Amino acid sequence: MAGIIDTIGNTPLVEITHFHDNPKVKIFAKLEGNNPGGSVKDRAALNMISSALERGDIHKDSKLIEATSGNTGIALAMIASMYGLEIELVMPSTSTRERTLTMEAFGAKVTLLENMEVCRDYAEEKAAKGEAFILNQFANPDNYKAHIKTTGPEIWRDTNHQITHFVSAMGTTGTIMGCSMYLKEQNPDIQIVGCQPTEESSIPGIRRWPKAYLPKIFDPSRVDRVIDVSQANATEKTRELAKKEGVFAGMSSGGAFHAAVQVANEIEEGTIVFIVCDRGDRYLSSDLFG
């Protein structure tokens, strides 16, 4: 009998069929919204908490804290509840109400502050005072190691070793770092493509970090190419995914899809996999589908 944690991973890989007409190019979506917490962050959250417990960094009476834009917080709230751990999640006040309510449903304390940088500073200051243990997804190797252990191998297996391009939004960069490490080890010719917002765009889950806040786990040498995506393009592709492919996802997934289609239109043959990092129901109170 499996517990909820045992259902994390092994998410579906589905072919996208309506956006290009070259039979030698295939685009596949990795549906991370099928994880029990609703996003790819279930993988990293589980690995960060379980590894910290195994090392003895935390114990059953530890208080955890983490700054998050949403998905990591939901995943951490769910997994912390399974381990009986107390957690405070610090989010930008612009986050959708669905996210806050979901975290609170799992028993987490939610603190809303001005923006993501302020949230990160608050969490780090509280941890420095010894008031809580910070998981620090932005600098924690257990973040990207989750994808070396699970996401990368699943993609390699489910494409029958045929993947030529991996496309992912870049937030904490854990997903793209871990998948790059694993996939490049299998075939160094696989192209790793990241996407980030254009300067004027705001896309939940993707960031252009100020240099001082760039995730410490990010190694630019592991990304072959970065594609800038506008808010308008990400929105358009998110809506098209739902209407034409039945894939109901958030805006960062639309951004990754836009980049995947751009790559598909540039190559003569290949197998492209992009990450659909969460589900669209997390954004219904926003104007994403309005």
How does this structure look, described?
The chain is α/β, with parallel strands linked by helices and 290 residues long. It is 39% helix and 19% strand. The strands form 2 sheets. Strands 1-2-10-7-8-9 form a 6-stranded mixed beta sheet. It has a 4-stranded parallel beta sheet with strand order 5-4-3-6, sandwiched between helices. Helix 2 links the parallel strand 3 and strand 4 (86-92). The radius of gyration is 18 Å and the shape is globular. The mean pLDDT is 94.
Layout of helices and strands:
Layout: E1 13-16, E2 25-31, H1 41-55, E3 63-67, H2 71-83, E4 86-92, H3 97-105, E5 109-113, H4 116-128, E6 133-134, H5 141-158, E7 165-169, H6 174-186, E8 191-197, E9 225-229, H7 231-245, H8 251-266, E10 270-276
Parallel strand pairs: 2-10, 3-4, 3-6, 4-5, 7-8, 7-10, 8-9
Antiparallel strand pairs: 1-2
InterPro entries: Cys_synth, Cys_Synth/Cystath_Beta-Synth, CysM, P-phosphate_BS, TrpB-like_PALP, TrpB-like_PALP_sf
Pathway: Amino-acid biosynthesis; L-cysteine biosynthesis; L-cysteine from L-serine: step 2/2
Cofactor: pyridoxal 5'-phosphate
Protein traits:
39% helix; alpha/beta; transferase; 8 helices; pyridoxal phosphate; TrpB-like_PALP_sf; 290 residues; P-phosphate_BS; four-stranded parallel sheet
H-E order: EEHEHEHEHEHEHEEHHE
Alpha plus pi helix count: 8
Strand arrangement across the biggest beta sheet: 1-2-10-7-8-9
Strand content: 15-25%
Distance between the termini: 41 Å
Question: Major beta sheet, specifics?
Answer: 6 strands, mixed
Q: Multimeric state of these chains?
A: single chain
EC number: 2.5.1.47
Cofactor: pyridoxal 5'-phosphate
Family: Belongs to the cysteine synthase/cystathionine beta-synthase family.
Keywords: Amino-acid biosynthesis, Cysteine biosynthesis, Pyridoxal phosphate, Transferase
